Amino acid sequence: MKIAVLVNLFPPKWLAGTELATYNLAKHLAKRGHEIHVITSHDKGLPNFDKENGFYVHRLAWPKIRIIGVLLFWLKIFLKIRTIKPEIVQAQDLSMGIPSLMIKKVLGMPYIVWGQGSDIYLPGRVIKITRSSILKNADAILALTEDMRKKMKEITSHEIFVVPNGIDPELFCIESQSIVKYNKSNIILFVGRLYPIKGIHYLLMAFKEIHDIIKDAELVLVGDGQERERLEALSVQIGIQDYVRFIGKVPHTEVKKYMQQADIFVLPSLSEGLPNVILEAMACGLPIVASRVGGIPDVIEDGVNGYLVTPKRLDEIAEKIVILLQNDKLREKISRNNLIKIKSYRWENIILNLEKLYLIIK
Questions:
Q1: Are the C-beta atoms of 279 and 171 separated by less than 8 Å?
Q2: pLDDT tens by residue, the chain, 362 residues
Q3: How many CA within 13 A on the CB side of residue 123?
Q4: Count of CB atoms within 10 A of residue 228's CB?
Q5: Domain check: are 193 and 144 in the same one?
Q6: How far apart are CA 123 and CA 36, in angstroms?
Q7: Same domain, 184 and 247
Q8: Together in a domain, 152 and 195
Q9: Which residues, other chains included, contact 141 with Cβ-Cβ below 8 Å and sequence gap of 6+?
Q10: 273 touches 197 (CB < 8 A)
Q11: Tell me, what CATH number does 142's domain have?
Q12: Same domain (yes/no): 174, 44
């Protein structure tokens, strides 16, 4: 089947959840024998057209001019689709549903739209105006999580299928016996962009309480972003700078090295869809402490494979982390539970579910 996948940004430059999920989706669909064309925006230094891991990538250059630039980008997508002639167009978020709707109306091609997170929970003005039409005209609607499905049901009465992102566990899992921990301290790990929505400010404040109790605790922050300087200044202000490491941005292939050295993974976000990094931490067998927001409760069962906390609640974040660090047997139990649970999120399973939908709407 020939499928065009529309996504705003794409690796190797962009490595957030939607971008990585789209890359893996294309790779696994291509393995199944489908002809996959990813259509995305152009990044400097990369070719306009390329083939990698069995699928095609079309990178469209467009002027970064407000409104006009976006309209030109959508027009280029339309023209590219007319040339490729796919059987199905798949929009990887609601913003890509706008050109998909235009393609259906003019070219008669069916489209799928897949809600990803911020497009549902924190939509911009254009999405708020167009989302009802996008969902109404879609041939299939997907949501990453049950919570996201409920939010989308407030917009449309159409059936919405819950299909999460997947993971290749073998890329993260290593036999525990083969892992040599270089640092004997208790390592608490965060991986993600250093943006206000990630709630790292509250993690730093909670870590001060944690370190007062567990003197060898260390906080490792992997990622970069607009808040880095402010967060570094805060760590100095509250006197924890010697126990906090700002690693900065690393290649995605390097993330597992930090996870395999950590004792606990923490995600104190104020809003989330279904963060891939949670699945990656599960695949590494890490106990997880994460905010009770968005799709996280779909993946983390409180007390079973991690703990859920209220966003911004320093006392809850600190309490759950301390409980885990002080109880080796509990950490081991939660680790085993995560290694079992992650098997249901294998990309092979996700692709089989998608193929059933493709056959229905083709």
A1: no
A2: 999 999 999 999 888 889 999 999 999 999 999 999 999 999 999 999 999 999 999 999 988 888 899 999 999 999 999 999 999 999 999 999 999 999 999 999 999 999 988 888 888 888 889 999 999 999 999 999 898 899 999 999 999 999 999 998 888 765 544 455 566 689 999 999 999 999 999 999 999 999 999 999 999 999 999 999 999 999 999 999 999 999 999 998 899 999 999 999 999 999 888 888 999 999 999 999 999 998 899 999 999 999 999 999 999 999 999 999 999 999 999 999 999 999 989 999 999 999 999 998 87
A3: 20
A4: 18
A5: no
A6: 28
A7: yes
A8: no
A9: 112, 113, 115, 135, 152, 156, 158, 159, 160, 161
A10: no
A11: 3.40.50.2000
A12: no
CA 114 to chain centre: 13
Range of the domain at 23: 2-166+346-361
Question: Are residues 295 and 312 part of one domain?
Answer: yes
Please identify which residue in the block is written with the tokens 């280029």.
76
- In what order do the strands lie in the sheet containing 160-162? 49-52, 55-60, 35-41, 2-6, 88-91, 111-115, 140-143, 160-162
Q: Which of 269, 315, 341 is nearest to 121 (CA)?
A: 269
How many structural domains does the chain have? 2
Structure-token pair, residue 34? 């489908």
Rounded to whole angstroms, the Cα distance separating 68 from 147 reads 34
CA separation, residue 75 to residues 61, 101, 265 (Å): 12, 12, 42
Residues 128 and 176 in one domain: no
Amino acid residing at 157: S
| Angle, alpha carbons 309-312-315 (nearest 5°) | 65
Note whether 292 and 335 are same-domain residues.
yes
- For the whole model, what pTM was predicted? 0.85
What is Dmax (Cα atoms) for the chain?
64
